[in-house]
Amino acid sequence: MLFSNTNDTIAEFLLENSKKNIFSSEQIHAFYISYNGLCLLDSYGIIINVNRSFYDIMQINIHESIVGKSWSAVLTQCGLEFPSSMETSGFDKMQGFKTHLIHKKKSNSGTQPILLSIYFRQDGSILLVLNEISDRNFEVENFLEPAELSRSRDYQSISEKERGYLSQDILTKIPNRHQFYSFIKEELNRFSHGRDINSEIAVILIDIDRFSLINELKGIEEGNRILIEFADKLLSEMAIDPNLFCSRLEGDEFGLVIRGLLTEKSLNDRLENLIDKLRFTLEFSGSSSVYLTLSAGVSFLNRKYTIVEEVVRDAEIALMEVRKRGGNGYNIFRNEMYKRKLNNHSLENDLHFALKNQELELHFQPIYSAQQKKIISFESLIRWNHPRLGYLPPLEFIYIAESSGQILKLGEFVIDRAVQVLHNFNKNSIDCEVSVNISPIQFYNQDIRDLIQVALTKYSVSPSKLHIEITESTPFTDITSSLNKIHELSQLGIKIFLDDFGTGYSSLSLLNRFPIHALKVDRSFIVGMKEKKVIEILKIIQLLGSRMNFKVVVEGIEIQQNFKILKDIGFDLMQGFLISRPMPEKNIYKLKRMIK
Fold it and tell me: Which of 444, 443, 418, 451 shows the shortest CA–CA distance to 433?
């Protein structure tokens, strides 16, 4: 007997036997995406594995496990009528394949003819193929072994349409864009015929954050290795979940379909769990490693959609919203997102002229020392004084700048202008420092050190007056390269601030390896200060900063009560609307009494 324990999980079976070449990865993919009902048995007729179509044809609840049960008992329970000659006692002695025409009882007292093919595989297992007599393609060729294939029918007789439908991504060997679109089209057809109307189907586009930077820094071969490993992770998930379909669309973008969802909350739980499993760190030669985060956009399949392209378009729009926020998350499509997309196209065009027309400017938000009772520094924040829409905050256009390739020019403007303001501070006897936010794209695609050095020399400003703020996730795109860049800046005299502290991953390892000067506690902690656990976390962060000799800046201070609680905990540096909203440079000079 091939499998001594029929209670082994499907995942263990597939992964183990794919290593033994009993099932190749291509056969596994074909098994799960086939529209024929497929059921794998051991030589005693015990069910080892089934695909989703088997559940559909048999009308079995997808949440009911039938692995480990007798195949004949399951088929009888489902209302199948088959000849008594189809006994399993002699299965272990049979070879080749047999075909039977059987009938399934229907609720309207009629019957549905089904072609049952039984294939006795060379490894001792048995493959059942259920095919409803209809116009569906017969796909058995894709999971039979070559010798078995020749016994079923000539491979050359498969139509071009079938080959195209069953095509796979060349690099990763998982289903490709063609299969993804075909799969969604089939689900749309289910809706049009009134099937599966009581469950939700989610179409998901998922990509690897800042993957293009990895390609540039590590080369295409290493980039391909990431894609292959990521696809293998998707394959493993698909192997244990018959409701999950995965494919690679292009580049680092993958398409997923999750079926059998009852509510949006069930999708949230499923997707959060899936994304958490798919994140991983890759090790490269020379002790270099890359931590991969993911972004995903989701659209729910429903009757408002008539073509596949509309479903995918809306998932793409939701994905763009996640990228706009910096990635590392997911978003579900809402109708208002489509309106924003149309507006973004207009803004992208306007942004080309913004620098030339001097529409971009810096505003500055003070950072206040509770102990010294004065402003000690400012964070520079870019604003776009749009001729039609008025002042736009960075959230409204930074993503557009990144996706359109204009972020580098914007970054140069910000650094030059911030250093110029420091020069003006010197002239007006204002002893304050200024911090600048650096986009991950700018961090990796520009020589930040030289760019800053040019500006400091141009305006005769000391490097110690300038801070660079990077988010927690920035260094993990390429830890070795990041470490070198940050050390160069630190050696120049620039202070490094770690922004949004507490919202990313592996922050403690950052503190240990990188020359960080200050932490900026994300405002989400301040919003949640009513919870006792959040207060305890803030105490730990304050203690961490004190013990490791880091400055700690708390962002998002908007009410006096929070200011007092944070001061009592031991925090000194505060930033938020309670202190001041961001302001243009000219307003800073009115605050001299709060600075000196």
Answer: 418
Domains of the chain: 10-159 (3.30.450.20), 177-333 (3.30.70.270), 350-595 (3.20.20.450)
Is residue 12 over pLDDT 50?
A: no
Give the Å distances, CA to CA, from 449 to 142, 256, 419. 55, 41, 14
| Percent of the chain predicted with pLDDT > 90 | 22
| Phi, psi (deg, nearest 5) at residue 148 | -70, -35
Tokens of 571: 């925090």
Percent of the chain with pLDDT over 70: 74
Rounded CA-CA distance 381/325 in Å is: 16
Residue 462's identity, in one-letter code, is S
User: Is 38 within 8 Å of 55 (Cβ atoms)?
Assistant: no
Question: What's the Rg (C-alpha) of the chain?
Answer: 30
Burial of residue 30 (number of CB atoms within 10 Å: 0-12, 13-18, 19+): buried
Higher pLDDT, 457 or 112: 457
Cα–Cα distances (Å) from 409 to 401, 404, 412, 423, 446, in that order, read 9, 11, 5, 21, 10
CA–CA dist 203, 300 (Å, integer): 6
Would you say 157 and 140 are in contact if contact means Cβ atoms under 8 Å apart?
no
pTM of the model: 0.52
pLDDT at 13: 42
**Number of Cβ within a 10 Å radius of residue 485:** 22
Q: Which residues partner with 574 through β-bridges?
A: 368, 554
Q: Are strands 518-521 and 47-50 parallel, antiparallel or unpaired?
A: unpaired
Coil, strand or helix at 280:
strand
> In this predicted structure, what is the pLDDT of residue 154?
38
- The CA angle 84-89-94, to the nearest 5 degrees, is 100
pLDDT of residue 153: 37
Return the structure tokens found at 139. 């796909």
**Residue closest to 438 by CA, chosen among 451, 426, 455:** 451
> Over the stretch 97-143, which tens digit does the pLDDT of each residue have?
666 767 776 656 667 777 777 877 777 778 888 877 643 333 444 44
Give CA–CA dist 417/397, Å, rounded: 19
Length of the chain: 596
What's the CA dihedral at 477, 481, 484, 485 to 10 degrees? -70
Rounded CA separation 313/299 (Å): 9
Which alpha helices (H) appear in 34-95, and where do they start and end? 52-58, 71-77
